[in-house]
Amino acid sequence: MHFQPTEEQRDLRAGVRELLAGRYGREALRASVDTGAAVDRGLWRELGAAGFFALRLPEPAGGVGLGLPEAVLVFEEAGRALLPGPLVATHLAAGVVPGAAAGTAVVTAFDLGGGLVAHLGEADAVLGAPGVPAGSPVRSVDPLTPLHRVASPPGDVSRYRAEGALLTAALQVGSALRTVELAVRYAGEREQFGQPIGAFQAVKHLCARMLVRAEVARTAVYAAAVTGDPGEVWAAKLLADEAAVSGARDCLQVHGGMGFTWEADVHLHLKRAWVRAEQWRTAGEAEELLAAELLDSAA
To answer: Which residue has the higher pLDDT, 298 or 78?
Structure first.
């Protein structure tokens, strides 16, 4: 099913992009990396006031009353901006955990395997758990996704997994699209042999493959948001993870050694994509679930 955003939905996406550009632009991102502060409580409350977390709550319950199609557009923009923090868990906790909808509470979830929980030290609550358990810090590949290891899973999130996977896929799509922009811009600026490197066929092909992967993943995420079909959700997560991870790697190749420096954002997209690929549903889990859905539909 094809999903073409309406004018109102495009306005919503543009509004979120404008908010994040003004409140969490590149300087704020670099400051977060330098200080290691993954969650900005002030920004979190601003997101709550803007309806980011209460987007799908009914209006009588204090929400915005929109649906998954609008949510994936909003989360796509958050992924594009590399906005850190347990965005998905706090969004899913709106209406369940006090303060989550308003952004006055930071909520994480047991969405990673191996006893790992992201942002545990910054969280006020854990989705599906009675409290916040103690954990041991674990070094994370992403400087803005701190990890803790706990003795046992602090909360059952099985009923949230499909929506969590789809919203995480939307974050991945936003990141994939942003790396396309970064690669194309750098290819037009960097010169070798008297011409921009974007004039070389190998670089053109890299950028073209990045765009195709990102757009295919975006289409899959949009379709899954409309249908809510579990099989489409798992397919969307698979495609989005691949688009984000492979896209960031290709973007690094376009940038060369410059992409690995702290002055560039490319490596941050790759590190975040690696972490998100392990959240809510891994590739192996999504493949098994998708295969089961396909077998059931063919029976």
So the answer is: 78
Tokens in use for 234?
């798992």
Residue with tokens 């549903």: 281
Q: Is a pLDDT exceeding 80 seen at residue 70?
A: yes
Distance CA 11, CA 170 (A): 18
Assess contact for 73 and 5: CB atoms under 8 A: yes
**Predicted confidence (pLDDT) per residue in 227-265, tens digit:** 999 999 999 999 999 999 999 999 999 998 787 787 788
In 3D, which of 128, 89, 93 has the Cα closest to residue 108? 89
Rounded to whole angstroms, the Cα distance separating 94 from 111 reads 17
> Of 81, 72, 66, which Cα lies nearest the Cα of 222?
72
Decide the pairing of beta strands 147-149 and 116-118. antiparallel
Cα separation, 46 vs 102, in Å, equals 9
Indicate if the alpha-carbon torsion angle 57, 97, 106, 141 is positive or negative.
negative
What is the distance between the alpha carbons of residues 272 and 14, in angstroms, rounded to a whole number?
A: 23
Q: Any bridge partners for residue 108, and if so which?
A: 126
Q: Is this structure's pTM higher than 0.90?
A: yes
